[in-house]
Amino acid sequence: MKKLFLRSIPAVFLAGTVFGVGISQLGAAFKGSTVFRDVPVGHFADDAIGEMHQLGIIKGLSSEKFGPNEPVTRAQIAVLFKRLRDEMKGTTPAVSSSVSSSVQSSSSSSSSSVASSSSSSSNATSSSLPYSAGGYVHFDANGYNVYKNVATGQITIIVARTGGNQGAGSVDYSFSGGTAVAGKNYQPLSGTLSFGTKETSKKITMVIMNDSSTTGTKTVNLVLKNAKGAVGISNPANVILNINDPNAPLPTASSSSSSAGAATTISLSSNAYGVAENGGSMTVTVVRSGITTTAVGVNYTTTNASATPGADYTTTSGTFAFAAGETTKTFTVSITNNSSIEGNRSFSVNLSSPTGGSALGIGAANVTINDDEGVPIGSGSLKFSTNAYAVTMSQGVATITVNHVLGVRAVTVNYATNGGSGASGVDYTPVSGTLTFAANEISKTFTVSILTNGNSTGGKTVNLILTSPSGGTTLADPSSATITINL
């Protein structure tokens, strides 16, 4: 059997028609028709497609197209079963019924994710969240400690992005409340962290004041909230910073201790990484947070999963020694390219045996090697981020985003303005060119200059088109779009 017609057959099959029970028991079903425009509402596989999409087993032909009546290839079936096996083995995120309905948008994810205790493990929390290409942000430790007369007068807090890194997003933070007095024990702090696509960590520096009249340990509440864009929020998102009296010994931690009690925490920058099979190598960043005025160390290593050492990647291990004041280290893992259609494979990177009174934050992370032989996985498709852009004449420029969907290879595509009711050279400056996407790069932008025209009544349009995709990729809907110029 080379092809199966009715692409939804695998969705029903995987969701429980053969296995007898639904994999994740989602409760109120999330509909496939809410994700893919070509899946009709009420389609017999609507619920199954939605459930499998949440689990990350079905990702569609593009972010908006599923192709329910198109043939399924052997390679696609193999990839579906590979993802199914990973989900059943627990090597990909499984959906928890308590959060499945709350993570469909960043705002609802934000409101639900802080309900758990701040003492929850960030790894355990992340593994119970539904698949999200944009990932989730959280503090890299369950709590922090600092002396009030720390030599640098400040502490560095790391906010990590895990479980996915595709797309841009932001999260608000605030450091306030507790038993410490703002302006006396610490400088109050709030703001917004903006994560670019593939960006997995941010640093926040908090000023600690040396108030001689204060004795004993004082606390500050650290909170993440209001996630926007591609990211959501996961625990720990509400933790406590202890500002300790200099006359009291600072807590220390062994390798088995909670990071909440340690003066310094060592973490992987993410608990999930992805790399293209033909990417050559991947770089893993290890970050140190909390008090950084002493020397600490940690071991790192790779651990086998479905990927095969040598055939898929090169086993790597070593020891990092962080000098006083040093906050980041990196190591590289070589990735092996082959010509087999075998679906995604995975291994893990791990930290162990922290020294110098430090503790582990994110100590383990899954690494997915994305197979580049299947076209949907390797080359993907290219499209505008929307079919309708709007800009005011006073803004002077329209920024247009082109997305590379489900692709990990390097590709190119041509873009151009293509008429419209606006007059070229009067209402806008015509443009054309080529966008080059590097391996794993998911978005590119170009700009169209808007001209000031005293005779314009507004509502003029500029048409945009994409043409000539390269590298085996295809154009997806929308490959044409319109800019509306408003007064």
- Give the end-to-end Cα distance, rounded to a whole number of Å: 59 Å
User: What is the helix content?
Assistant: 10-25%
Radius of gyration: 25 Å
Helix-strand makeup class:
mainly beta
- The shape is globular
Search tags:
11% helix, 5-stranded mixed β-sheet, mainly beta, 487 residues, 6 helices
Overview of this structure, please?
- This protein is mainly beta and 487 residues long.
- It has 6 helices and 27 strands.
- The chain has helices spanning 8-17, 46-55, 74-89, 106-113, 122-127, 375-378, and strands spanning 136-139, 144-147, 154-162, 169-176, 189-195, 201-207, 218-229, 232-233, 238-244, 264-268, 272-276, 281-290, 296-304, 317-322, 328-334, 345-355, 358-360, 364-370, 381-384, 388-392, 397-405, 411-417, 432-437, 443-449, 460-467, 474-475, 480-486.
- The longest helix has 16 residues, at 74-89.
- It starts with 7 loop residues before the first helix and ends with a strand.
- Residues 1-9, 12-29, 91-129, 250-261 and 373-377 have low confidence and may be disordered.
Write the layout of secondary structure elements.
Layout: H1 8-17, H2 46-55, H3 74-89, H4 106-113, H5 122-127, E1 136-139, E2 144-147, E3 154-162, E4 169-176, E5 189-195, E6 201-207, E7 218-229, E8 232-233, E9 238-244, E10 264-268, E11 272-276, E12 281-290, E13 296-304, E14 317-322, E15 328-334, E16 345-355, E17 358-360, E18 364-370, H6 375-378, E19 381-384, E20 388-392, E21 397-405, E22 411-417, E23 432-437, E24 443-449, E25 460-467, E26 474-475, E27 480-486
Parallel strand pairs: 1-8, 2-9, 10-17, 11-18, 19-26, 20-27
Antiparallel strand pairs: 1-3, 3-6, 4-5, 4-7, 7-9, 10-12, 12-15, 13-14, 13-16, 16-18, 19-21, 21-24, 22-23, 22-25, 25-27
Helix pairs in contact: 1-2
